[in-house]
Amino acid sequence: MIVGVPAPELITDPTDERVADFRDLVAGDRRPGTERGTGPVIVEGVPAVQRLLASPYPVRSVIGIPGRVAALELPAEVTAYEADKWVLSDLIGFRLTRGVLASADRLPPPDLDALIAGPDPAAPRRLAVLEGLNDHENIGSIARSAVALGIDGLLLDPHCADPLYRRCVRVSMGHVLTLPIAVLGDWPGGLDRLHEAGYCTVALTPADDAVDVGDVDPRAHPRTAVLLGAEGPGLTREAQQAARVRARIPMRSGVDSLGVAAAAAVAFATLR
């Protein structure tokens, strides 16, 4: 324990209102009683909570099994709780294998034009643009690859699932908390805002008439936005038509496509 940091408060009753943020964390689309994209951000596991602490998201509280919370070296202003594994399971609604959770307030969405421009409007910049992705684990995987492979932000169409939902954050290992995220409300017409800012929009598709993604030279296109659609339907025809380039990942004969998270990682790496 750090000198001057209060010891975690003990929770023995799963109905204790002090830990209401963590109650009934079911594996559905949203917390009970909350609308999509609202409610606190819930983060699981020591590495992810550490990334939360380093992020701009205001931490509300942390709870974990004895010993796990102390290992986080929390700042004094963060309220911490401890509970044994049975009380914690009753509180959150499932057995937690990662030993610790945190809750945080959401941030106001960034200004879309500022996100597109970036700190330096003349600097190389890359974005990932998601259309219709409704699988939280896919979004989390894409976010993790995005951070690892140099993507500067996420843009979502109005129908994507919440990228700050608990499972997205968990699968991303907390990396999604380091990405600026905004919704492109006018879809796909809003892609013109990217074109005006100098982006080459690259729509991923397995279609035979698309160009090889390896032929899209990132040196010729220092500002690139990669468009990704949901597994199964992929990008809509309208989104593909609105993009500047339609690109495919070359694959062995007999394999028609990759999962969207794997395809995203390949494209991000190819277009670095």
What features would you describe in this structure?
- This is tRNA/rRNA methyltransferase.
- This protein is α/β, with parallel strands linked by helices.
- The protein has 2 domains: 9-104, 60s Ribosomal Protein L30, Chain: A; 112-270, Alpha/beta knot, CATH 3.40.1280.10.
- Helix content is 24%, strand content 19%.
- The chain has a 7-stranded parallel β-sheet with strand order 8-7-6-11-9-12-10. A 5-stranded mixed β-sheet has the order 1-4-3-5-2.
- Strand 7 (153-156), helix 5 and strand 8 form a beta-alpha-beta unit.
CATH topology of the largest domain: Alpha/beta knot
Distance between the termini: 42 Å
The average pLDDT score comes to: 91
CATH class of the largest domain: Alpha Beta
Low-confidence stretches: none
Query: Hey, roughly how much beta strand do the residues contain?
Result: 15-25%
User: Do you know the CATH architecture of the largest domain?
Assistant: 3-Layer(aba) Sandwich
Helical segment count: 8
- The number of strands is 12
| Overall radius of gyration | 20 Å
Biggest sheet layout: 7 strands, parallel
